[in-house]
Amino acid sequence: MEIKFNSVSILDKEISFEIDSSGIYSFLGTSKSIKSLILDLISGETIPESGDIQIKKNIKVGICKSNPYEMVKSKKIKDYFRYVLELNNYKDKSINIRINQSLKLVGLDNELLDKKINKLSYIEAKKISLVSALIHNPRIIIIEDYTDGMVDHDKKEFARLIRVLKNKYKKIIIFLTKDTTFCYTTSDIIYLLDDKKII
User: Fold this and answer.
1) Which residue range forms the structural domain that includes residue 19?
2) Which of 20, 117, 129, 171 can bridge 165 by disulfide, Cβ–Cβ 3.0-4.6 Å?
């Protein structure tokens, strides 16, 4: 089992669900507060007042938040990636290889690596933020409102990528979104968020 919610209190409601295989699992709703809360609960940034969340031991989690400029602004992108990989026990010889592989996966080359995140365009920053969630090869990838501000071409490219992550790399993708069309055309399972509950 990868993730299990056991009667966890989400605002004024309790929820229970399990995610135990690769796939695209979407939480669809307009309330940013509850989507962000779900992200923080799964990532461990917030502790539930009741119930518990179980993530299988040694499972890595990658997080891509809605605002790509929340990444560390004081470092060049390559230095931040190196920092993340070193934290995850990547050795020096493999770090550059892993960075280049991850950039290629999202359709970028390494010319952006010497820049800081706040010097990039919004779409470039989105892709770099996604790389930061993928770069340490997590089993679970949580992506928040990624399609906001994207044109159809960018959305199609993103849909192709998350299908590759699911089918080729056997990832669990948890997608928090208000983009109804994208959600219904891409997801395997959809949880509908209605104000303070999951229906």
Assistant:
1) 1-59+139-199
2) 171
Burial class (CB in 10 A: 0-12, 13-18, 19+), 102: buried
Quick: pLDDT tens for 73-99. 778 999 999 999 999 999 988 999 999
Strands 197-198, 189-194: pairing is antiparallel
Nearest to 135 by CA among 100, 109, 173, 108: 100
Whether residues 191 and 148 share a domain: the answer is: yes
**% of the chain at pLDDT higher than 90:** 59
pLDDT in tens, 27-72: 898 766 677 777 888 777 877 777 777 888 788 999 999 899 887 7
Q: Are residues 125 and 143 in the same domain?
A: no
